[in-house]
From TrEMBL:
Gene: g9964
Keyword check for rRNA-binding: no
Protein's name according to its UniProt entry: G9964 protein
Highest taxon of source: Eukaryota
UniProt keyword list: Signal
Signal peptide extent: 1-23
Pfam family, any one: Ferritin_2
Regions annotated as coiled coil: none
UniProt cross-references to PANTHER family, sorted A to Z: DESICCATION-LIKE PROTEIN, OS05G0151100 PROTEIN
PROSITE patterns noted in UniProt: PROKAR_LIPOPROTEIN
């Protein structure tokens, strides 16, 4: 209910000027939610696959959607190649699982940008120009950090609105895998936290915080970096860890589709950009059908 109200609210506040927007409740179906989740998985799968192989998803996984632009085979250490390979396989499976569940209702993957989108987002977050995620281990981890936490919050947002038990079972099976991924990235970045991101002369901790701050601003105030000051104010010999972003009651943050779109579009849920230059495919895409 809160979920439907949030969508209706987004319509009234954000979309009133767009043709076809009505002050009415949108009916969000399971199909819409699964396609929305699949759009996010398409991005993750393209990023990891391209980084390890130099090319992305095949046309059956893309559902005949266009190949992503801007990615490259990454210059990674042997251990990170192994980690990225495991993550890629999970994400490809997620896209294919969702396609199988949706059947003929599955949409094609959307046009995705996995190159200059990162450069643009990092410039907004940190006033750093020319960032590219495929140069080094740490850049690759920072790139993945940008979207993995968003996926976790998107699944937590979508799951309570899913009606059918089999759909729920699928999303509930994917969500924790996304949380594992996010935790792997956060832990690896935490271990490298005091290193400088070259050539920008900024610590990994501070780089991550800048990305988190941007997501917090765009996506409903729900985000945390990987370190926090200790609650008791004491000094610790290494920055105090915050590997698990959570709401204070031990639960992952929950974002509405609108909040997710604002982040992945680069700031505004009604204006496609950043990772999705032409917007998401499927009914949850930031525009409302004219009718
Ligand atoms: C939208 O849904 C809410 C909650 O179900 C309801 O209270 C409200 O009257 C509905 N608004 C419209 C315009 O249908
Ligand atoms: C496309 O990739 C998937 C996942 O890696 C694989 O299972 C499938 O056989 C491939 N399809 C084609 C037509 O190559
Ligand atoms: C923590 O370290 C800072 C800088 O080294 C120092 O100014 C401060 O007094 C220390 N705080 C505590 C609680 O020890
Ligand atoms: C998003 O873009 C729309 C359409 O241009 C605009 O009306 C709205 O104010 C923007 N929202 C934010 C949060 O900037
Ligand atoms: C975007 O969503 C609207 C409203 O749900 C829908 O009519 C339109 O077809 C969607 N666009 C795409 C590309 O799926």
């Amino acid at each position: 209910m809160a979920f439907r109200a949030a969508l209706a609210g987004a319509c009234c506040l954000g979309l009133l000027l767009l043709a076809g927007c009505r002050a009415q409740n949108l009916t969000v179906t399971d199909t819409d939610l699964l396609n929305f989740a699949m759009n996010l998985e398409c991005l993750e799968a393209e990023y990891y696959s391209t980084a390890i192989n130099g090319y992305g998803l095949n046309s059956s996984t893309l559902g005949n959607g266009p190949p992503a632009v801007g990615g490259l085979k990454a210059n990674l250490s042997p251990e990170l190649i192994q980690i990225a390979t495991e993550l890629a396989n999970d994400e490809i499976n997620h896209v294919n699982d969702l396609r199988a569940q949706l059947g003929s209702a599955a949409v094609p993957c959307p046009q995705m940008d996995i190159g200059s989108s990162f450069t643009t987002i990092v410039s907004k977050a940190l006033n750093i120009y020319g960032f590219f995620p495929y140069n080094t281990d740490v850049n690759f981890l920072l790139g993945a950090f940008l979207f993995e936490d968003v996926g976790v919050t998107a699944f937590h947002g979508a799951i309570p609105a899913v009606k059918d038990k089999a759909n729920l079972e699928l999303l509930a099976g994917i969500a924790p895998v996304e949380a594992y991924h996010a935790a792997i990235l956060r832990t690896l970045l935490y271990q490298k936290g005091l290193e400088m991101v070259t050539p920008y002369n900024i610590r990994v901790f501070d780089f991550v915080q800048g990305l988190s701050n941007l997501r917090r601003k765009a996506g409903g105030g729900k985000d945390q970096g990987i370190v926090v000051p200790p609650a008791d104010g004491r000094n610790t010999s290494y920055p105090f860890a915050n590997l698990v972003p959570q709401d204070g009651a031990g639960k992952a943050f929950q974002r509405t589709p609108d909040e997710v779109l604002a982040i992945v579009y680069g700031g505004n849920s009604t204006q496609p950009g950043a990772f999705y230059p032409k917007g998401l495919t499927g009914a949850i895409n930031g525009t409302v059908a004219a009718s």
